[in-house]
């Protein structure tokens, strides 16, 4: 009977976060959260920005809460998914400044939205981001501006397929053929 009580006591003092998750280092050290918490936040935010390359702060928080709900509803591996659910909720509940700092791990700010970083520094998406950041809010781009900037920065001609892929991911085409950065609230 004492072993049962000891076991209950041990379980009741155990934290809600499982020791196994997508990242093995989720513990807290003397100096605060370990690098593992940033890795976990990066993983969740990477998931958010995979489906939609442009997100507003409100959309990021909403998407993190939806991700937490998805983990909570999946009953396959209860303890692991519950830990991921709690971690996603915690990420969504971070103070604005801290969440903003974590978003910067996976996205670039510009005009009240965040655009997913591309791992290749010479990618066309980064040219679009650079051009939009040098424009006023709600500024538009033309294809000629993009082609000229690509020739200057990545020193090659871009293909129509490559161009249209980035336009689809991060832009809205206006009636007059100009490109506007998505507002980040809709897919």
UniProtKB/TrEMBL annotation:
InterPro entries: RNA_pol_III_Rpc5. Residues 1-37 are annotated as: Disordered. Coiled coil: none annotated. Signal peptide: none annotated. GO terms for biological process: DNA-templated transcription. GO terms for cellular component: nucleus. Residues 1-27 have a biased composition (Polar residues). It comes from the Eukaryota. This is SIN-like family protein. It comes from Zea mays. The lineage of its organism: Eukaryota, Viridiplantae, Streptophyta, Embryophyta, Tracheophyta.
